[in-house]
UniProtKB/TrEMBL annotation:
Coiled-coil intervals, chain numbering: none
Lineage: Eukaryota, Viridiplantae, Streptophyta, Embryophyta, Tracheophyta
Entry similarity comment: Belongs to the 'GDSL' lipolytic enzyme family.
Superkingdom of this protein's organism: Eukaryota
Species assigned in the record: Brassica oleracea var. oleracea
GO molecular function: lipase activity
Protein name (database record): GDSL esterase/lipase At5g55050-like
Keywords attached to this entry: Hydrolase, Lipid degradation, Lipid metabolism, Signal
Pfam families according to UniProt: Lipase_GDSL (PF00657)
Record GO biological process: lipid catabolic process
Keyword Hydrolase carried by entry: yes
Signal peptide limits: 1-23
Length: 376
């Protein structure tokens, strides 16, 4: 997600759920599997961007200014579209790993030692505004699309294979987690493009998204990646920005339908890819769509005080302007589901969705939970 209000370069994926860690049986053992996850490699959009867009010279899709980062250590606006740490950070911490640094922060002749260390523990390739396709964001250099993120992964792959012998590298990769969060920007590119809608219908377009993602997952697999955590598109019509468009503050059901179409294609594609690759691939698909539906339907059950407004913003639902230094800032970020008008989650919500992934309850995960995936 970006802080630009142009729909084609924004993301409305939502990491949801605000249950307490102690409400999940099995989390104690889940966090004890750190040794089985030597590294976390992150690809995707602004939900998991750790600051790569800071290094794009002309991109305005950045979050390296307050109030972003108000709850990050040192109150630093790192480029994360959040008040603190995001879901990629939370996953790394669950497995006792350092926060995966932005790939672009590791470039340069004076970053060699830092790059070598990160190559072995995890790197974040995600970019706010990125899509599965090389769409308008790449054209205007607003973000790094998925295919380019995979290209960057190939550079890191060379880095650690030069440090390990072939058998060690193979083991390292087979146990590492590849975390992929992407898709919503492509949907909104299509929604905002009359030319695209003339060429293909929504079912065809969302299927082409799944097919293109499959190509990139196979590229990762070809380098030795074996464990994948794939997150579906959430109810993208229920973000503060979408709700503020109507007087009743209802969700945009058309946008939700589009997200559902893509998720259906994504689930089928992953099943097909597993059949093709057999035992050399394991994955967990997280159903972000239904997690949002459940939390919005009964927010008190999950500990939310506000599931409609942005914590940081201005105007109706705090959703008339992006989060900035002059925005209104909610006093208790743990009670808000959304950080900004685009639907980025607060740190509390991002951490809780990771707890849901690790839970023994497989309500939102298939065919494996994250705990089962890293134990496989």
């Amino acid at each position: 997600m970006t802080t630009n209000i142009t729909p084609s370069i924004t993301i409305f994926l939502i990491f949801l759920g605000l249950l307490r860690i102690d409400s999940f049986p099995g989390l104690e053992t889940a966090t004890g599997t750190a040794a089985s996850v030597p590294a976390v490699y992150v690809l995707g959009d602004s939900l998991v961007d750790a600051g790569n867009n800071n290094y794009l010279a002309i991109s305005i899709s950045k979050a390296n200014y307050p109030h972003n980062g108000v709850d990050f250590p040192g109150s630093i606006a790192t480029g994360r579209f959040c008040n603190g740490k995001n879901a990629a950070d939370a996953i790394a911490e669950k497995f006792g790993l350092p926060l995966p640094p932005p790939y672009l922060s590791l470039k340069g002749i004076f970053k060699e030692e830092e790059r070598k260390a990160a190559a072995l523990s995890g790197v974040n390739f995600a970019s706010g505004g990125a899509g599965i396709f090389n769409g308008s964001d790449q054209q205007f250099r607003q973000s790094i699309p998925l295919s380019y993120q995979v290209n960057n992964w190939l550079s890191i792959h060379k880095e650690f294979t030069s440090q390990l012998d072939p058998s060690e590298a193979q083991i390292h990769l087979s146990k590492s987690l590849f975390f992929v969060v992407i898709g919503s920007n492509d949907i909104f590119d299509y929604f905002g493009s009359f030319k695209l809608r003339q060429k293909t219908n929504p079912q065809q377009y969302t299927q082409s998204m799944a097919d293109k993602l499959k190509e990139q997952l196979k590229r990762l697999h070809d380098t030795g990646a074996r464990r994948f955590l794939i997150v579906g598109v959430a109810q993208i019509g229920c973000t503060p920005g979408q709700r503020a468009k109507n007087s009743m503050h209802e969700c945009d059901e058309e946008a939700n339908t589009w997200g559902s179409l893509y998720n259906e294609a994504l689930v089928k594609m992953l099943q097909q890819l597993k059949e093709e690759l057999g035992s050399s691939m394991t994955y967990s698909y997280f159903d972000n769509f239904n997690s949002l539906h459940d939390i919005v339907t009964n927010p008190a059950r999950y500990g939310f005080a506000d599931v409609k407004s942005a914590c940081c913003g201005r105007g109706e639902l705090n959703a008339q302007l992006p989060c900035s230094l002059v925005s209104n800032l909610c006093s208790d970020r743990t009670k808000y589901l959304f950080w900004d008008l685009y639907g980025h989650p607060t740190e509390a919500a991002a951490r809780t969705i990771v707890d849901l992934m690790l839970s023994d309850d497989a309500q939102y995960s298939s065919p494996l939970t994250l705990t089962q995936l890293v134990s496989s």
